[in-house]
Please model this.
Amino acid sequence: MTIRRIHRRGALAASAALAALALAACSVTGTSGNQATGGSTGGGGQVTLNALFMKQAGYSEDDIAKMIATFEQQNPTIKVTPTFVAYEALHDKIVTSAPAGTYDVVLMDVIWPAEFASKGLIQDVSSRFPSSWKTDMLGGALSAAQYQGKYYGVPWGPSTKLFYANTDMLAKVGATTADVQTWDGVLAVAKKLKDAGVVQYPLAWSWSQAEALICDYAQLLGAFGGQFTDSSGKLVVNQGPGVAALTWMKKTLDDGLTNPASPTMLEDDVSKTMASGQAAMSLNWESTFRDLNDASISQVVGKVAVMPTPKGPSGANPGVNGSMAWAIGAKSAHPDEAWKLIEFLSSEANQDQFAVSQMPNWKASYQKADITKTNPDVFKAAGQAYDSLISRPEVPNYTQVSQILQVEIQNALLGKKTPQKAMDDAVAQANALS
Amino acid sequence: MTTTPDTATGTARATEYPLRRKKLRHSQGFLAFWLLAPALLAVFGVIIYPTLRTLLISFFQVDSALATSTPFVGLRNYVDVLTAHGFWSAAGRTLYFTVVSTSFELVLGLVVAGLLNARFRGRWLFRTIVVIPWALPTIVNAAMWKGIFNAQYGSLNALLTQLHLIRDYHEWLGDPNTALNMVILADVWKMTPLVAFFLLAGLTSIPTELYEAARIDRASWPQVFRSIVLPMLVPSISIVLVLRTIDAFKVFDIIYAMTRGGPVNSTQTIAFYAYTTAFSDQQFGLGSALSYVIVLAILGLTTIYLRLLRRSEMSLL
Model:
């Protein structure tokens, strides 16, 4: 009796709540249009900031712990609780935690400002952004914080993929780094290495069904003289360079020059393959140089050269723009303190201190001899690479476009479709989205 | 207890009793309600409310986790889901995963249960060891198998090349033709013990007289298996079948940890597809509709199973 009555009462209440929600013109997410982004809780109280960091590439967790310790020392009323997630989980973590306002400060990739800003997940910080920064910071890094002329974050390091070569292996076939300045040169050296039995698969790539694949493809697309989109924003990778780059990738697999496990690898796997001497050449982010020279995880310490990405038939060699930026969560209750943390993390002084892990995004850093000498090889290679970068499409539905491209590029790599057919299908699907 | 045969007080007590009992029952119900209230609250919070909320969202267009404008679109999300090519291919893969993994687990589970039921010294040790795969968290299991299947340093490639069964290393998780089967293998390894223990419970409940009678009748082993073991196991098998089918149908964690749906979406199951739609693409309305389609499919499956079970005399359900 009692239970049944409770049931009925519960059902009544539930349906009433549903009806109220459905009738009221408010959104089903419970977010109203003029949402107050809770002002700072001033008045000397202790504030805890939750910050979301990326687990791999760039700054290590130890680096971050040191940065936070310094920040907390300078700001005794603010405590920072960091959370680390793998890059592959970062986007979804930011999205799912947004309604609860879990994170005050989040690290976002260059491909997300359009999506996060247009969907209201991060705060517009244009009014806080000093105009001097717009000229003092590297342009490629700034684009990681911008959308439609507004600033939604502060850059934290520019980034691109550099080319790594095991000079020891190269020397065994009489080659030097001068021979691998073009992709044609890379192929010729790779063929020699394979024929001489120096290494079974000279090349390794991050061609897993993930964003990593798009980064590698972007760099080759640029080398073949292509772009992702035309001036109207439509995807055009099914024309000339887009197909040529993919055909080239597929051929390296067919010729046995590329490690056939590449379609399951992320950047970290590529780095490990290089570190264990199972690959002679590969593309990877700046911090890989640090890892390949870390004797605790690498067998090729001191044997690896780093340089800008090789030139393609077009003579161009743009690196993929992989910069990242700090943003304030839309529902953060402490935006002022969050901004303080971002200011500190992105400051020239802080970035310079950790230049071995990640390149600074301040132009001035590249002129300081005492900073560049901490990581001379990467400063030299990256300094050139940042002059020309290729961007991935800056569209709100980028995640979907990227997924389509990932699947179709893999279709070609695994021989399920010809490169032309795969790219035609990708373009048709992506351009039908919006 | 009184010993005086006083009829007056006796009748008084008799009229008093039902009243007190009613009161007692009422207060008991009251107590029960309050004891259950915390659980009710938890169930409401984590199951009922999200379920209703998801249903509600599935009728709206919600393009952001913090959307401010969410137009009502009626059944359009459902239409979009059912007409999407991605949905049907993911559904096909899920069906394959469910059928293959459940059948392997059932067959292997039966074998293991038979072994565990045999009398031998140290049986307890064997039973303990067998349960270990199931006790492992899925994420650990997935990481382990990912290591075994690794194309460069995985032990499966090492084993097969050293046995001269294959010449070159194979990319088990990189080949769209083998990836899903490899994930199934990992799932079967983990879930077979659970199935085995369910079936073992069924096996131990078979009276020994039946076996003795069969022996007197000189029945062969296959006959005993077909005429005694299998029919007596039908209830256990049915329960396992229902549980494992539903579980396999909504598989997500092992996919996320092992392949993330790749290569070329060849391991993308329906639950993973729903996850990507909702959280990576931020199409929460569509994702919610997709979840309800999955729920309806599972509900349909369960209904069919329960119907079949009710028809069977041996059923315990």
Notes: Confidence is low (pLDDT under 50) at residues 1-6, 16-25, 34-43 of chain A.
